[in-house]
Amino acid sequence: MESPVYIQIHNQIRQDIEAGKWQIGDRIPSERDLAVTFNVSRMTLRQAIQTLVDEGILERRIGAGTYVANRKVQEKVSGVTSFTDIMIAQGKKPSSKTISYHVAKPSLSESEKLQLPDGAQVLRMERIRYADAVPISFEVATVPYDLVRDFSKSEVTKSFYHTLEKKGGYHMGGATQTVSAQLASERIADYLEIKRGEAILRLRQISLLQDGRPFEYVRTQYVGERFEFYLER
Questions:
Q1: Which CATH superfamily is domain 83-223 in?
Q2: Are 109 and 140 in contact (CB under 8 A)?
Q3: Are 82 and 127 in contact (CB under 8 A)?
């Protein structure tokens, strides 16, 4: 199974950065030029760039282009808590809308974060998460397909953690998380019902089972005015 074209472009740009073609702080070529280089549409190229932005590898600067991102200070947040549990604990009704759901070859980043063996497949899903019907976040979650192949789509999309624990018999462990700020793209703004360029919080999380195995790599963008992180030392 061949990876989607935008994932192939994602992989190539990341490899180019790691090989030193572009250094931290360098401006990469424009989307128009890259689209020509890769012989793809602007839309496909933009999707590839967005995956790299979501992972913190690239960063957009309004009116100035796209740059190789600086490494940011990271704040450690411990524990794995589901969105559903967080909303219920706050007296809100959680819900979600699945935008995409498919099995595919992992990108280089996904394979690395999930410590996947060669030839492994992943389930990649995009969801909008709501609290009392108000959009709170947009997330792209990637999980090893072998972990979920026996679960139905509804079991995975409605409450993934509960399905893993109750039906799969797995036990949640810790997580590594990085939180940073960025501005909403046109696509994300549309999903979250905000204006393009509004502040959003970006969370990248690798969730672990109790035995230390990574089972989820998720990139989530939260509406800055509707969600906040609480850190307890």
A1: Chorismate lyase-like (3.40.1410.10)
A2: no
A3: no
Sheet strands side by side (includes 172-183): 94-104, 122-131, 134-144, 214-223, 199-209, 172-183
Determine the CATH number of domain 5-68.
1.10.10.10
Single pTM value for the model:
0.71
The residues spanned by each domain of the chain are 5-68, 83-223
Enclosing H/E stretch for 188: helix 186-192
What ranges in 31-180 are assigned the alpha helix state H? 31-38, 42-54, 83-89, 108-113, 145-148, 153-158, 160-166
Residue 158: both structure tokens together: 């409605």
Does an H or E element contain 189, and which? helix 186-192
The closest alpha carbon to 52, from 14, 3, 12, 19, belongs to 14
Q: What is the pLDDT of residues 4-17, one digit of tens each?
A: 899 999 999 999 99
Q: How many residues does the chain have?
A: 233
- For residue 66, what are the CA distances in angstroms to 28, 40, 62, 76, 133? 6, 18, 9, 27, 34
Locate 71 and state its tokens: 């490494």
Classify residue 229 by its DSSP letter: -
Span 104-114, pLDDT tens digits: 999 999 999 99
Q: Is the pLDDT of residue 94 over 90?
A: no
**Residue 55 burial (CB count, 10 A):** 21
pLDDT tens digit string along 176-206?
Answer: 888 888 888 899 999 999 999 898 988 899 9
Q: What is the mean pLDDT of residues 219-230?
A: 80
